């Protein structure tokens, strides 16, 4: 199937990888971004409906990354998706999260809207990214304190490589079949933060420890590092969910979409080892 695809969040964690994969396969696409810099990039902002018609013109398939500057996704995103339908977009692929079913807050509201209003849709619901350990707060503490802080206890997660999410998205965007389904995406094994610390210790040649905190201690630490109180409490609550076992599961979602098994943590660390101080 020939495609002209718009990748929103095209400079983000998954969007950038999707664009690279599409380019490698010679598939025409545009990158939607608030700050376009090249010919393949076009101005797009979920908070700017005036940009939508130009961005969606000639597009058949749309990759949706919800805005990060609001949690009211059910009010902000669907009006622009209405414009997309009017401009002829047929296929919609949403990046959501494993914890958000259809109708849940945030991306769950977009999920429900897609089910009810679009001819072709896929919702990708990945669990926690392996990339988190070389980005954001974990990179700093791994490099400076030889430690990973969380409130996850011994809870386990099917951590996933963002590249596997990108491959799944490309499949959903370009498949010859209509999918109309959501997929919980995980890696091949469930791992605790202690397991992650042990794997990093082995690869980096120095002891990395997991330091488990209470949710209130973690929230306080996050606020000290610059996050606002509300977001700090949300992240701490998500760690508590992990401790309770809500993310301890493995699915075949990646293989169902890509026909390839997801990347393991050991292979991921080998590939990305340069990200940390050795």
Automatic annotation (TrEMBL):
Phylogenetic placement of the source organism: Bacteria, Pseudomonadati, Pseudomonadota, Gammaproteobacteria, Enterobacterales
Residues annotated as domain NmrA-like: 2-235
Signal peptide per UniProt: none
Name of protein: Ergot alkaloid biosynthesis protein
SUPFAM superfamilies assigned to the protein according to its UniProt record, in alphabetical order: NAD(P)-binding Rossmann-fold domains
